[in-house]
Amino acid sequence: MLFTDLGLSEPILRAIAEEGYTSPTPIQAKSIPAVLKGGDLLAAAQTGTGKTAGFTLPILQRLTSSKASSGKRLLRVLILTPTRELAAQVQESVVTYGKYTGLKSTVIFGGVGANPQIKAIAGGLDILVATPGRLLDLMSQNCVSLKDIEILVLDEADRMLDMGFLRDIKKILAALPKQRQNLLFSATFSTEIKALADGLLNAPELIEVARSNSTNEAIAQLIHPVDRTKKHPLLAHLIKSNDWQQVLVFTRTKHGANKLVTQLEKDGITSMAIHGNKSQSARTKALADFKAGKLTALVATDIAARGIDIDQLPHVVNYDLPNVSEDYVHRIGRTGRAGSNGVAVSLVCVDEHQMLRDIEKLIKQKLPQEVIAGFEPDPNAVAQPIQLRSQQHQQSRKPRPAGSGGAPSKKTPAKRGSPPKRSFNR
């Protein structure tokens, strides 16, 4: 199947072609026709399969083929995302593929000044990409009206629920017209997502392109058993001995991420951290430097698991296993995207044996293990309790300052002379 088979207009097809794409991914091939029909949609697909283009392309088509009833430029589409980085990437997709449509869009998020965002909204928009906190903040100041919204998108809905945005989402829904098209995209169909869908969607079309909670077969997964005190030396050894040039490393806590960066820098491994306590400028710089190849290691907490979009990322390391098993799937989904191969390595100490069993139960496979010479774990080591994420994140569950979101990061340019891409994962 080609994009030319999906009922998209010439301006949109031209933009797609200029990016070097010809064939849709499976989620795009199914979701684009579904969105064009005008009905509600509940879609699940693995991270990295192209959910973003799966809704941005048909939304652009619908807006260009049906003018606002008043003839004026009205805010007709609202796309909600859980994180700043994801919001920026969705906006990048809208701008890239809508550049010949004449449609106007902007992205709003916290962590940066609101005045430029307010001016962009006041200038007239067709599409608004937003994180819930900043949107509610501007709504409370009467800077944005949602009365003309025709299409609502909840992107990464499972992550929004996990981050405690349900109350914010309900406030936003209350300000929307009752008659509208609702599109709910999620990595998994959890019980909570199904409950949200039941209250939000009207006879939705259901799309699922991969087994729920499955991992991408293009990702080689490996466990390295190691003592907790030897994780940092083992990681440095793996990076240097294998000559890894680009590795995304996940830690359980913000403090752990900062500590690991300090340790890696002492080893001569260029690295930076990205997490919620970092300023927006620091997060943007870290991500941009990592994409540009200026950093070997980008150390992140789970909030960044679905906010980092890097073409052909070769390595992901779970320095700490996640407390929530589903997060393992989201973390390693940063690699092995759109047909490329990737490697996901997990450094597992005795404290995490139960977490590993839970992950293997979720993904329905036993992960191979390899002990690295010189880093053999102590067979007599005693497990220590690990603080659960629900305890760690008590502050994030409390009422938050208005404004949560991300900043744009430039798309890594394609290498000259590279062959045309045949599918994409934006």
TrEMBL record:
SMART domains on file: DEXDc, HELICc
Region (Disordered), start-end ranges: 380-426
Gene from which this protein is expressed: rhlE1
Name of the protein in its database record: ATP-dependent RNA helicase RhlE
Classification via InterPro entries: DEAD/DEAH_box_helicase_dom, DEAD/DEAH_RhlB, DEAD_box_RNA_helicase, DEAD_helicase_RhlE, Helicase_ATP-bd, Helicase_C-like, P-loop_NTPase, RNA-helicase_DEAD-box_CS
EC number: 3.6.4.13
Motif placement: Q motif: 1-29
GO CC term (a single one): cytosol
SUPFAM superfamilies, alphabetized: P-loop containing nucleoside triphosphate hydrolases
The species this protein was found in: Polynucleobacter yangtzensis
